[in-house]
Amino acid sequence: MATLNEKKTCSERMENFRRFVWNPETKLFMGRSLINWVWISLYYLAFYVVMTGLFALSIYSLMRTINPYEPDYQDQLKSPGVTLRPDVYGDRGLQIYYNVSDNKTWDGLVTTLHTFLTAYTPSAQHLNINCTNNTYFIQDTFDGPNKTKLSCKFTSDMLQNCSGITDPTFGFPEGKPCFIIKMNRIVKFFPGNGTAPRVNCTYVVRGEESHTLEVDYYPVNGTFNLHYFPYYGKKAQPSYSNPLVAVKFLNITRNTELKIVCKIIGAGITFDNVHDPYEGKVEFKLKIED
Amino acid sequence: MVKKRSDVYSVEIYGTKDLQKTEIEDEDEKHKDLKGNKKNKKTEELKKELDLDDHKLSVSDLEKKYGTSIDKGLSSARAAEVLARDGPNALTPPKATPEIVKFLKQMVGGFSILLWIGAVFSWISFAIQLVQKAESPFDNLYLGVVLALVVILTGIFAYYQEAKSTNIMASFSKMIPQQALVIRDAEKKELPADQLVVGDIVEIKGGDRIPADIRLISAQGCKVDNSSLTGESEPQPRSCDFTHENPLETRNIAFYSTTCVEGTATGIVINTGDRTIIGRIASLASGVGNEKTPIAIEIEHFVFLVAGVAVSVGVLFFIISVSMRYPILDSIIFLIGIIVANVPEGLLATVTVSLSLTAKRMAKKNCLVKNLEAVETLGSTSVICSDKTGTLTQNRMTVAHLWFDNQIYSADTSEDQTTQPFDQTSPSWTALSKIVTLCNRAEFRPGQENLPIMKRVVVGDASETALLKFSEVILGDVMDIRARNKKVAEIPFNSTNKFQLSIHETDDPSDKRFLLVMKGAPERILERCSTIMINGKEEPLDSEKAEAFQTAYMELGGMGERVLGFCHLYLPEKEFPDTYQFDTDSMNFPTSNLCFVGLLSMIDPPRSTVPDAVSKCRSAGIKVIMVTGDHPITAKAIAKSVGIISATSETVEDIAKRLNIPVEQVNRREATAAVVNGMELKDMNSEQLDEVLCNHSEIVFARTSPQQKLIIVEGCQRQGAVVAVTGDGVNDSPALKKADIGIAMGIAGSDAAKNAADMVLLDDNFASIVTGVEEGRLIFDNLKKTIAYTLTKNIAELCPFLIYIIASIPMPIGTITILFIDLGTDIIPSVALAYEKAESDIMNRRPRNKRKDRLVNEQLAVYSYLQIGIMQSVGAFVTYFTVYAEQGFLPSTLLGVRVNWESNVINDFEDSYGQQWTKYQRTYLQWTGYTAFFVSITIQQVADLIIRKTRRNSIFRQGLFRNKVIWVGIFSQIGIALILTYGLGHVTALNFTPLR
């Protein structure tokens, strides 16, 4: 079979390219006449305008059909995630290491907690109502102002010793630090099936063995009161704030790294997803040095 | 090496007497040609080895030289020794590329390099991440492994496909081992021809193929057909006399692979295997490397384009992402993603499959494609230089016309005649048929009574074969008739007499007369006649009747037919009694004042499918040029009857004749047709040839030597044509190599021609070429469709990356998901497009211009990328946003969230409804997004598949259900998507999630 390729020198190629960009004989710019370019640009302009229009129309109708109060599907959020404050991440998840005698090592942690709790000051919570019922706070109507629903008040003083009010250092210098556990919000999620879910912290030595720790939970028993649930979404409850549980570790062995797991115990909350270390539980490493 | 099969038809003998002279000249020329073209060193070798002196030696010297004996032959031991020294008597096939090299070529060719680079980058980033102890370094390791696997698998697949098609060819080559009759240990033995060694004594007889180069030591009426070696179509007599210094010219050497037409001979093997003349020529021809095929160039062009786009977009966005302060490592991963998105991984495999499907389909239609890519080349053919004999014609002389009783009758010349329609009641016909039957030395080979007459093998020359078959068809058992009319004397045809004569007893027991029958050149026969038979009565041959004869003779001759005259004489019983001894040397019987009976004219008739095929070529814009060694008149007659010269067009000579002016005064541009003689061609320079090729749309080259074919091919290529050339002889090999697609004849073709060709026509039929052209065009169209289909989704795969980088949205589609589209759902549909039927105009448009009509041209790329691709992206993004919105992330929240979204330290990421997500929950949602995006592209690809079914026809005209494979493709696509999303949805490494 014979070759169809003629070898071209570099200069010939350049010449060809120049001729392609502007051919003075046929007056073609990049293979098209100027008017041709105008037409084709107009065509593409129109085409893309129409495409953009279609896209916009689709998104618009999507937005119109979406329920503004709750998402259509919640199959991806079956069990709430759990977060910890203060949150310092190392190579492998949360790692809180500090030295009791060196206040530089725990100043940051304390500040984080203070910052976090600013959302729970009485002034920040003034829009919310005081709730006393220990049952789900079910609202079928919009009782709040501007077609909203009411949210229950959670103020930092409910955390008592870990509120930062009585002890602004949250017990860090004493080696009895406070940690705050927060459960993620899920719209219309009823945790615990009538009984309030509670936090349970244990420490893990080599794998699965869990040992009880000497801890104080605030509020008592480390429960999330049921009147904070269900959550009706941002639009219905704009001032809603997550209930918190503070954990004060009373007797932490110094100078050893402890792997602590705080689980939320309650019906409907799972913590056995191997892929997700933060679903229904939070794991962290704690090391307090002298 | 292909062994030539014993011919189905008798060997063809052609042409006029003076052909021989020119052919010999041509032969010298050919040697010059070969010397001129090839590497000097090789030529020197050839020259040196041609200094063969065996033809000059006496028999006893030969015996001494080769240590053999004419009566006893070699001893087996000695033969084994020589065999061990010289190797088997077979031509070495052209050196094959080592398998491992072929395999590696597949591994690094095309897009593989890009993917390898991607894989290496992934591994590098894996290594870096591993060192940095990052969160999930193994993702990159997996990606690299997957990419490498993709390359290796597609490589293996392509290699397997290629090996399979090579095997088809190889199995074809191993047909029928040849046998030779050898004297060894004083015994006659049948040995496989490859066991022959120098010094062996072999016996050959008519119909055999010469098993090696042989110096004849005895011969009886031996003739060989050297056409496969020299292109001479006239059989050459062979004897044991040394007649010429040049070993190629001398009569006492017969060459390997030529055929013994008639007679018997015994000879000493003087050269075997590659040392034979033909072996040397074949090795010269195979020295010319195969060049790139048009489709290979197209695919290269395409790979270049796509790779160019991939790399430039990749690098552009690498720079953008670096300048947007993405970490270098992330930017590298984007780069990999962009490359993977841009490279159609499955496409090259698809192309290979499509081509081999077509090759298979063509093999069914008798076109055996040696080189997969030649399939398409055939489709872009714009000029076919076709042989006449055997390709356009049936390759057998057939009686076409008869003249007796002052009237011309036409005979049936079709391939499968069983009766003859003309009037057979006249007593003149009875007389004529008797002469035709008796004055004929040709015989059927025994043992083929069950075959149709036309397919039986005949021993004898072409004209006699024609006459034999003709009379067998009409009269029935010719052998029986001959047996009843016993032959008592015979003078065979020779070129001085130009007649053949035999004397028979009659089958009428009461009639004791002898019948003398004679046939030969009509004018010679007429000279010997004094009477002529009209309606069974002998009438004196006056000038009026002679005039009628002349008119008929001229008319038949003018149709390019070979005319024979027939006459007879009943010898008076008194002068020639029963016991009369006829002596053919002294001719003691009358050979003049005979009774003229009639004329028969023969032609090698066109194959019945050819005219249709030629007109198809014409409407397809393909110029058909006939190149033949035949006489111009015959060539022109055949050209006219098959439509190569159409009914209305005239040659310069025709115009001159019509207007009654000298040829020089005719305006050459008025003539659409031209018949160019080989002698004229020799004197032309290339400009003149170009002029002929340009100005005439219908060209016949007559009396050309196979070497001139090369000149013609080059001429056509100078016009920018894609030239297909048919050929069968060894010396056609250069032309076959030179042509864009060389087509060798499967039946008549020589080994060397088949080696040099890209395609082998198993039935030697021109119509098969046209089928091939149609298939070739179809595959080009279908490949275009496949590529358009495949390219479209690249944009839908690429856009996510670009928008991800620019708008910082969560990643819409993952690299592995892309691979699942490219190599999972899309493969079967794109192969299915190869099964698409031809569109209505496929044979009505001009052949593609190889410089302009690219496989992937601007329109196709722009249409796929900028129109359909964009539409797909829009569709896929709508799906993406819908999935996220329904899960809680409205489009407005998605923009710019990438950094937080991908952060491992944020486990309470808030969506539009105030819900909070952990990292893993987000990642899982992202995979759902991948899956949705994937499904969206898959569904849109189904629609794309349906729009790609046609390029010009409307979908309804083409029919939605005509191509069933498309539906298989669609269902497989949906099926694979379902399996991936629901079946494998829980395998995290694949990043698929079950969708609701």
TrEMBL record, chain A:
Membrane-spanning residues where? 37-60
Q: Enumerate the UniProt keywords alphabetically.
A: Cell adhesion, Cell membrane, Disulfide bond, Glycoprotein, Hydrogen ion transport, Ion transport, Membrane, Potassium, Potassium transport, Signal-anchor, Transmembrane, Transmembrane helix, Transport
List the GO terms this entry assigns under cellular component, sorted alphabetically. apical plasma membrane; sodium:potassium-exchanging ATPase complex
Membrane topology for this entry? Single-pass type II membrane protein
Where does the record place it? Answer: Apical cell membrane; Membrane
Keyword Glycoprotein listed? yes
Query: Is Metal-binding there in the keyword field?
Result: no
Molecular function terms in GO for this entry? Answer: ATPase activator activity
Q: How does it assemble?
A: The ATPase pump is composed of two subunits: alpha (catalytic) and beta (regulatory). Interacts with alpha subunit ATP12A; this interaction is required for the formation of a functionally active pump and targeting at the plasma membrane. Interacts (via N-terminus) with alpha subunit ATP4A (via the P-domain).
The record's family statement is:
Belongs to the X(+)/potassium ATPases subunit beta family.
What's this protein's function?
A: The beta subunit of the gastric H(+)/K(+) ATPase pump which transports H(+) ions in exchange for K(+) ions across the apical membrane of parietal cells. Plays a structural and regulatory role in the assembly and membrane targeting of a functionally active pump. Within a transport cycle, the transfer of a H(+) ion across the membrane is coupled to ATP hydrolysis and is associated with a transient phosphorylation of the alpha subunit that shifts the pump conformation from inward-facing (E1) to outward-facing state (E2). This is the non-catalytic component of the active enzyme, which catalyzes the hydrolysis of ATP coupled with the exchange of Na(+) and K(+) ions across the plasma membrane.
What is the name attached to this protein's record?
Answer: Sodium/potassium-transporting ATPase subunit beta
Protein's organism: Lepidothrix coronata
Q: What is the lineage of its organism?
A: Eukaryota, Metazoa, Chordata, Craniata, Vertebrata
Gene name?
A: ATP4B
UniProtKB/TrEMBL annotation, chain B:
Q: Which InterPro entries match?
A: ATPase_P-typ_cation-transptr_C, ATPase_P-typ_cation-transptr_N, ATPase_P-typ_cyto_dom_N, ATPase_P-typ_P_site, ATPase_P-typ_TM_dom_sf, ATPase_P-typ_transduc_dom_A_sf, ATPase_P-type_domA, Cation_transp_ATPase_P-type
What CDD domains does this protein map onto? P-type_ATPase_Na-K_like
Q: What are the transmembrane regions?
A: 108-129, 141-160, 302-326, 332-355, 787-807, 813-835, 860-883, 927-946, 966-985
Its membrane topology: Multi-pass membrane protein
Where's it found, cell-wise? Cell membrane
| Keywords for this protein | ATP-binding, Cell membrane, Hydrogen ion transport, Ion transport, Magnesium, Membrane, Metal-binding, Nucleotide-binding, Phosphoprotein, Potassium, Potassium transport, Sodium, Sodium transport, Sodium/potassium transport, Translocase, Transmembrane, Transmembrane helix, Transport
The residues the entry assigns to the signal sequence are: none
Q: What is its main location?
A: membrane
Q: From the UniProt entry, list the residue stretches annotated as the region Disordered.
A: 24-45
A GO BP entry is: intracellular potassium ion homeostasis
A cellular component term, taken from the record's GO annotations: plasma membrane
Gene3D superfamilies per the UniProt record, alphabetical: Calcium-transporting ATPase, cytoplasmic domain N, Calcium-transporting ATPase, cytoplasmic transduction domain A, Calcium-transporting ATPase, transmembrane domain, HAD superfamily/HAD-like
| Cation-transporting P-type ATPase N-terminal domain span | 53-127
Q: Which GO terms describe its molecular function?
A: ATP binding; ATP hydrolysis activity; metal ion binding; P-type sodium:potassium-exchanging transporter activity
Family note: Belongs to the cation transport ATPase (P-type) (TC 3.A.3) family. Type IIC subfamily.
Query: What PANTHER family does the database record attribute to this sequence?
Result: POTASSIUM-TRANSPORTING ATPASE ALPHA CHAIN 2, SODIUM/POTASSIUM-TRANSPORTING ATPASE SUBUNIT ALPHA
NCBIfam families per the record? ATPase-IIC_X-K (TIGR01106), ATPase_P-type (TIGR01494)
| Name listed for the protein in its UniProt record | Sodium/potassium-transporting ATPase subunit alpha
Organism, scientific name: Lepidothrix coronata (blue-crowned manakin)
Q: What is the lineage of its organism?
A: Eukaryota, Metazoa, Chordata, Craniata, Vertebrata
Query: Gene name, please?
Result: ATP12A
